[in-house]
Long-chain fatty acid--CoA ligase
Amino acid sequence: MLSTMQEAPLSIAQLLRYGSTVHSEAQVVTWTDDGSRSASYAEVGRRCARLAHALRGLGVTGDQRVGTFMWNNQEHLEAYLGIPAMGAVLHTLNIRLFPDQLVHVVNHAADHVILVDATLIPLLAPRLAEFTTVRHIVVSGAQTPEIDLPDGMTVHSWEQLIADEPDDFDWPELDERTAAAMCYTSGTTGDPKGVAYSHRSIWLHSMSVCMTDGMGLKQGDLALAIVPQFHAMSWGMPYAAFMIGASLLMPDRFLQPAPLAQMIAEVRPNFAAAVPAIWQGLLHHLEDHDDDVSSMKLVVVGGSAVPPSLMHAFEEQYGIKVLHAWGMTETSPLGSVANPPAAAEGEDAWRYRYTQGRFPAAVEARLVDDDGAIVPKDGESVGELEVRGPWIAGAYYGVDAADKFDDGWLRTGDVGKITADGYLTLTDRSKDIIKSGGEWISSVDLENLVMGHPDVLEAAVIGVPDEKWDERPLVAVVLREGSDTTPRTLQDFMAGSIAKWQLPENWARITEVPKTSVGKFDKKRLRADFQAGDLEVERI
Ligand code: AMP
């Protein structure tokens, strides 16, 4: 029997209409080099309509792709809403991709127009001649810099382009399964691969961001969206904010600890989301500066494992709750969130909060071993995490990547265990795990441990060849300036928390852990540095 319910399509146009009317007074605040500027959601709604008209004028029809090469700011929010609402596909370009990869993704997605922040023109301009489908560059920012344009490409000022356009747009009715936005993976191996999100998947994902046991974003929040809009859709915050009536604070290009602390003190957000490296930086900044961060209540942290020491420091010193979450570009990106069970208290609750969290009902998860067998969810058995659900990618755009899927499940490449009550603990990326004498050592566990030492600023662990054990861990450690802490002291510090055979004996002091285009530890580079003999390794 079929249901008797309506089949109203879920669409970004509906989100835009709802947020800009029902929550018309909510604000998007953008940080600038001279304080902040704001616009109401009503104003954002009008500007989205004008942008859509302007893009039609540039020949954007049907599901053509419109790229954005932008920081987190008001105009990027308008692109997020206006482009999918008009039926076109928003393609967020990662400004930190290596130039060849940038050219690849622009051409692969066949972007027709690229919207770009004036401050980012120097990064984009040198490669324009290699973009085969781009006809228009639209520049956001006070001044449109001189650009050397290839034939057939025109440059426009965003503000001039939309100045005379109408404030409303007849948003088309779309099939909810059509693509609304796309984002390419950061591509640590091979070319980046495109994930195309549907109107439906974005809607359902946004609801999960707003669930109390999701990220818990709610009406009236002022959310500091540090996670970039150019990577993994800023964890869905722009859409969720319009859905629930939360205001947004956009940091634009001011992502260093000092301006972040200043904008928190002045604009007083109560919610934020960012990768651990940002919070580590802010924490160290706050040790020497007394910026007022008392407005902040909840920060969602993911993208890499969060060291427990970071969670405790924020909670105990600043009263800021750190909520650990796991996800990936392919999962929209929110997968699991580490809200502890209501009954858990004290140390027990902390243990749940250290994990990568629990999946919502919509996302199914399973673990698979090297032979393809499903391993039990007993909190001990380890396997590769596979997921499926309505906001999980089922394919990549325009490439055959059958090896990334397993009978309809997405193979995440993450390795971990799941408890009977559904909490995921990741032990590694499958390629990062260290196999020592046939036994696994989690590089993440070692990093978390050593980063708990007060003299350690950052530490990344890789496996290095070992005659006796095949592989042993090497800790590349960044110490606080002036610190004379030795590897032996750090090893003693770790002893007692892990099995003795797991204690690392290879240490290298470095000045900074190399990072990928999206700010994660770049272990590929660290391995290459090791192989090239560029790391000064001390064996203890
Ligand atoms: P990306 O698609 O660039 O966002 O990267 C997704 C990958 O980041 C995942 O497959 C994990 O390897 C890693 N990741 C995301 N969140 C976490 C987390 N909370 N803990 C450990 N690794 C994470």
Q: What stands out?
A: Residues 185-186, 232, 302-305, 324, 326-329, 333, 356, 412-414, 426, 429, 518 surround adenosine monophosphate (CB under 6 Å). The longest strand covers residues 456-466.
